[in-house]
């Protein structure tokens, strides 16, 4: 709750540690006063509970990353579960995707000096889809929000789908206007954290981010009864197809970390809490993903993190089983278990 008040720059942050926590919860309208104390509302569990899924089954994000084209037909995949307050779930999941998946490339042309820059997946589009999935999910349904990463596309799934009165043709081009929201209070809290605009502008923002990146438009899928909703974001075609007229150059780790609007260096407004729990660890992972043989000095130079802090981040990642050293200190490399 204290993190939320600070991140949202709430007027109540000046009252932290000055008034009882019960009074603070009532002021935020996440608890109700009763004759025997206070009752925590569901919104309180979702925004401030350490493990809301214990009380509201399905209040989590499940991620599966398929590493081969066979996808579900292969045993080569990684699974992750993101829990905690829903704003933390969003940030943790996006930081994980940033660290292991997002790549920026520069396209150089032989006939002109200007180069084009684009990502395999634009961060802004993924963020908006994921926030919308948590915003519009039914928390009476035990099914979690799902992120499914395939070799050339990402799917984000939530239950149920859009309300039946929404025209899906208009929805797909950003012209649908919501008359009511499934979880209005969640939207209000996420808006205060700049994670949601809550003005029926989410689809427009997704379309704009994909178009700006040169990516294909999103694909939306639901059934007649609107039992589920699947959003598919496909990889930029230049990452899958070669073109002899263009030269593709990976952006160096230092440039990617500072340029990425998702903020591997900025930490997504506080970064990861639990699991990968700070900006330094995310930056170290991003660099080791690109160069498993990077030394502490090289990581420090690329990330701008002091060498001693890099050493501490590596020690924590080793302890948590996220990385392990293969071979000797001088000639070996780091293997990531993400």
Rg on CA atoms, Å: 21 Å
From the N-terminal CA to the C-terminal CA, the straight-line distance is 29 Å
Count of helical regions: 13
Kindly report the spatial arrangement of strands forming the biggest sheet.
4-3-7-8-10-9
Low-confidence stretches: 241-246, 250-277
Structural class: alpha+beta
Mean pLDDT: 79
Main sheet makeup: 6 strands, mixed
Number of strands: 13
State the helicity in percent bands: 25-40%
Succession of helices and strands: HHEEHEEHEEHEEHHHEEEHHHHHEE
- Report the portion of residues in β strands: 15-25%
Shape: globular
In short:
With 338 residues, this protein is α+β, with helices and mostly antiparallel strands.
Describe the structure.
This protein has 338 residues and is of the alpha+beta class. It has a domain at 12-41. 35% of the residues lie in helices and 18% in strands. It has helices at 2-7, 21-27, 42-48, 86-100, 123-136, 168-172, 184-192, 202-213, 253-259, 267-270, 279-290, 296-303, 307-319, and strands at residues 31-34, 37-40, 61-66, 77-82, 104-108, 116-119, 145-149, 153-158, 219-221, 229-234, 247-250, 323-326, 333-336. A hairpin with a 7-residue loop joins strand 9 and strand 10. Helix 4 runs antiparallel to helix 5 (123-136), helix 4 (86-100) runs parallel beside helix 11 and helix 5 runs antiparallel to helix 8. It is globular, with a radius of gyration of 21 Å. Mean pLDDT is 79; it is low at 241-246 and 250-277.
């Amino acid at each position: 709750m204290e993190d939320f008040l600070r991140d949202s720059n709430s007027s109540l942050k000046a009252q932290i540690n000055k008034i009882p926590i019960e009074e603070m919860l009532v002021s935020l309208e996440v608890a109700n006063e009763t004759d025997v104390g206070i009752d925590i509302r569901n919104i309180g569990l979702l925004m401030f509970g350490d493990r809301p899924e214990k009380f509201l089954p399905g209040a989590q994000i499940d991620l599966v990353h398929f590493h081969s084209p066979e996808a579900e037909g292969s045993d080569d995949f990684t699974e992750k579960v993101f829990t905690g307050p829903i704003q933390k779930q969003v940030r943790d999941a996006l930081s994980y995707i940033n660290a292991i998946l997002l790549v920026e490339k520069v396209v150089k042309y032989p006939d002109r000096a200007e180069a084009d820059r684009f990502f395999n997946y634009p961060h802004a589009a993924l963020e908006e889809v994921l926030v919308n999935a948590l915003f519009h999910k039914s928390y009476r349904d035990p099914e979690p929000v799902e992120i499914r990463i395939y070799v050339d596309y990402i799917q984000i799934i939530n239950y149920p789908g859009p309300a039946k009165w929404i025209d899906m043709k208009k929805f797909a081009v950003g012209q649908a206007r919501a008359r009511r929201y499934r979880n209005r209070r969640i939207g209000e809290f996420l808006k205060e954290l700049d994670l949601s605009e809550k003005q029926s502008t989410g689809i427009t923002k997704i379309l704009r981010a994909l178009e700006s990146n040169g990516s294909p438009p999103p694909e939306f899928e639901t059934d007649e009864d609107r039992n589920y909703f699947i959003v598919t974001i496909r990889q930029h075609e230049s990452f899958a197809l070669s073109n002899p007229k263009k030269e593709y150059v990976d952006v160096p780790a230092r440039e990617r970390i500072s340029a990425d609007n998702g903020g591997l260096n900025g930490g997504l407004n506080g970064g990861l809490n639990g699991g990968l729990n700070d900006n330094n660890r995310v930056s170290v992972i991003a660099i080791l993903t690109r160069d498993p043989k990077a030394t502490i000095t090289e990581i420090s130079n690329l990330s701008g993190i002091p060498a001693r802090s890099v050493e501490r981040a590596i020690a924590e990642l080793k302890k948590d089983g996220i990385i392990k050293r293969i071979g000797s200190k001088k000639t070996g490399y780091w293997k990531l278990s993400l």
